[in-house]
Amino acid sequence: MRYSAFSIFKQALAGNLGWKPAWREPQPKPHYDVIIVGGGGHGLATAYYLAKEFGVRNIAVVEKGYLGSGNVGRNTTIVRSNYMLPGNEPFYEFSLKLWEGLEQELNYNVMLSQRGIISLYHNDSQRDHYTRRGNAMMMEGVAAEQLDRDTLKKMLPFLNFDHARFPIIGGLLQKRAGTARHDAVAWGFARGADRLGVDLIQNCEVTGIRRESGVVTGVETTKGFIGCNKLALAAAGNTSRVGEMAGLKLPIESHVLQAFVTEGLKPCIDHVITYGAGHFYISQSDKGGLVFGAEIDGYSSYAQRGNLATAEHVMEEGVTMIPGLSRVRVLRAWGGVMDMSMDGSPIIDRTPIDNLYLNCGWCYGGFKATPASGFCFAYLIAKGESHHVARALRLDRFERGFPIDEAGVGTQPNLH
């Protein structure tokens, strides 16, 4: 059923008894044209765009848990395109443009709030870096604005501008950036894909990938064997495990990234703010809770929980940037399993196995990339070639010596 103000009014008068399930609960068919492993934001978006834009309807999305139980429901909801390198900036700007029309596209409220993101800097070299980044953005047609200390003091008076080691001297603003509701994005794409005939198969773990004569013929699952013509992997932090089933050793590592939510407060933080002296980032949700996070835990893990040492480090960074946070109670925390690539940038490409496709290496940037990742992955699966904004995101770029090192820290996943 289509959602609208009229349908809400009508259902309210009828006691809200007429709402239909957002998607079906089908049993797997023996064979599909495309199977997508991973029922998170990227897998669901891929299925939706494959069905809507490219006319492929015989699709199954298989998810070992419930839809949205992975990283798409375990992040800090930031949406932005303030990147610098040619391999990243056009891709993330394409994603942001898709975000801006997503609610109308899906007939679903993903709660996109373009409140702007401010990236703080603390010394002359950081200022020069953000100047360069802002110029790179504008060369791609993306608006960016550099803010001086006095302007920031008027906008964000709660920041610690005079810290002895990390005084705040300015920031880079992207006004079109902001936040969206993480689970609503997964539900919106799931509902849209289901309406187009995609089978969303929950609680169906892939236990093996069957190959014959070097070609994938299907997947072994806890619900039996399911055949396919093409297999697409969008399993985030579990990509290494699933890839090994097909004999692939991939250039990614799995790390835990923690996120935190405080008690509800009156509106106090109007933007997304990132800390230049660390990797701390914070925004305020519609319910009033402050949502924040920082670095990964720094060691490989598949656990959806973090360690106390990193939690303490995150709190220290937050209080250094905003001293008033010391009086706020943290209500809950969680961990997402990041598929960290060697250069900190994603991979959307074919594998050496002809009918096996790969979507991974999203590091911290997976949520904001959800629409573009789905669209470009669907384009690749349907057409057999990369979309023009994703041509640099090749699997073999490490072998060829063409990394996309946005952070400039080399080929160590734990440093990105």
Automatic annotation (TrEMBL):
Residues in Rhodanese domain copies: 34-78
NCBIfam families recorded: soxB
UniProt subcellular location: Cytoplasm
This protein's record includes keyword ATP-binding: no
Alphabetical list of InterPro entries matching this protein: FAD-dep_OxRdtase, FAD/NAD-bd_sf, Rhodanese-like_dom, SoxB
Major localization listed first in the record, in broad terms: cytoplasm
Similarity remark: Belongs to the SoxB family.
Pfam families: DAO
Cofactor(s) the protein requires to work: FMN; FAD
Keyword Ion transport: no
Enzyme Commission code: 1.5.3.24
Keywords (A to Z) from UniProt: Cytoplasm, FAD, Flavoprotein, FMN, Nucleotide-binding, Oxidoreductase
PROSITE patterns (alphabetical): RHODANESE_3
Name of the protein this chain belongs to: Sarcosine oxidase subunit beta
One CC-aspect GO term: cytoplasm
Catalytic activity from the UniProt record: sarcosine + O2 + H2O = formaldehyde + glycine + H2O2; sarcosine + (6S)-5,6,7,8-tetrahydrofolate + O2 = (6R)-5,10-methylene-5,6,7,8-tetrahydrofolate + glycine + H2O2
Superkingdom classification of source: Bacteria
